[in-house]
Amino acid sequence: MTRILLVLMTLLLAGCALPKVDPEREAQADHVYKLTRSGDAAGLTAMGTPALRRNDMVAVLPQLRVHLHTSEPTSARTLGWTSNRVNADATYQVVRMYSHPEGQVQARVTMVRSGEDPWRLDGLHVMRVTPAALEAYDASVAAAGFNLTGKSAVHYLMLFGAGLSAAVCLVSAVVAGLRRRWLWMIGCVFGVGQISVNWATGALAVHPIYVALLGAGFLKGLGATAPWIISVSLPLPAILFWALGKWRPKPPKRKPEAGPPSGSDTRWADT
Q1: Which of 38, 65, 98, 169 maximizes the CB count within 10 A of its CB?
Q2: How much is the pLDDT for 222?
Q3: How far apart are CA 123 and CA 113, in angstroms?
Q4: SS3 assignment, position 47
Q5: At a CB cut-off of 8 Å and minimum separation 6, what does 107 contact?
Q6: What burial letters (b/e) apply to 192-204, b meaning 16+ CB within 10 Å?
Q7: Which residues touch 146 (CB under 8 Å, ≥6 apart)?
Q8: Mean pLDDT over the full length of the chain
Q9: Which DSSP category does 48 fall into?
Q10: Residue pair 2/178 in contact by the 8 Å Cβ criterion
Q11: What does the DSSP 8-state code read for residue 227?
Q12: How many Å apart are CA 75 and CA 178, to the nearest integer?
């Protein structure tokens, strides 16, 4: 039973963990930015996909470098990233912000790979970031953060419901395990249906056909501006576990009554 509970807790922690950007893709994006700044058309062509190689990088690079600064970047940070896979083909896009003494530049680098082949450059978009655009981005990041100020009653109700549903599922699963009701223990860790709220905007979404681990979800999308999504599911198996009295200890098994000894001969005598 202890091992099963540890597995359940591991699944819970894995579900709550936020995805992180691939540092190798960040490094590759930085290398692309460096080659673009230096005007190395041959280097960009060598690491590009066949479709990118068909472009005349010698003619394209001057158009890109107009949006760059001549000085070395003093710092860089990732604004967002996406990762998609279809069968053996994968696409990874990372958006990096480079700070120069003259200003800031945003670079969106798209990389693709097929199977176990190396990642190839498939697209590049660069633009200078104005102070107004930077302020708007910072405001979006602040709005996407998780905070309790200025929220409506719906926000607080959803947050309370998510915590309550997760607690009911977890407690019910533990009690079912202690009572050695293994199927009930597995069922109690799931919730049915889902109502989710966008923590930044307050928009609600309903999914009647849905199964959620521990009856709740606390998720944040990729990127700093992605909002938190809080979801609540009905802990129906856990409710049935308590309503049907499955939390009570199992009745002790009856021992079979001892019959007459084998081969015995019982005789009745008239008196």
Answers
A1: 169
A2: 67
A3: 13
A4: coil
A5: 29, 32, 33, 36, 95, 96, 97, 98, 124, 125, 126
A6: bbbbbbebbeeee
A7: 199, 220, 228
A8: 84
A9: B
A10: no
A11: P
A12: 54
